[in-house]
Amino acid sequence: MKKYKESLKTILDRLHLSIKKNNLKNSKQREYILKAIYEDGGHLSPEDIFVSIKKTCKNASISSIYRILSFLEKEGFVKSLEIDKSGKRYEIASGLHHDHIICVECGKIEEFCNEEIEKLQVEVTHSYKAKLVGHDMLLYVVCESCLAKTK
Prior knowledge:
Elements: H1 8-21, H2 28-40, H3 46-53, H4 62-74, E1 78-84, E2 87-92, E3 99-103, E4 109-112, H5 115-127, E5 138-141, H6 144-149
């Protein structure tokens, strides 16, 4: 399982505060969705989430999952990745910093962190007399498995 900066309990506690702040009804669906993404540790589509929670959350629908994901992203609980035309994938926003390598053939997503790249990004922003406040790096590749299939 992926390492996060916060425990699931801490994230759920923050969710309850956010629900209260936004004057929303407390919904178990939000918790189930966050828990599914947290426990998977990967990059889930709304459809993946639906399959994961439909047994424990009988009133879940794909449209409610999209609505809840939009709320969770706006409130900073999840981050989305635009992988390809198939739509967004979601991950917990409080994970440790990383970038992504995405296979354009099979959609496989790998995470990486490279200190040299991180340092270079700071150098580039300094050369523009700017301060780096964040970044997302997505490298689109044909993965080793897909390359092997074409041989």
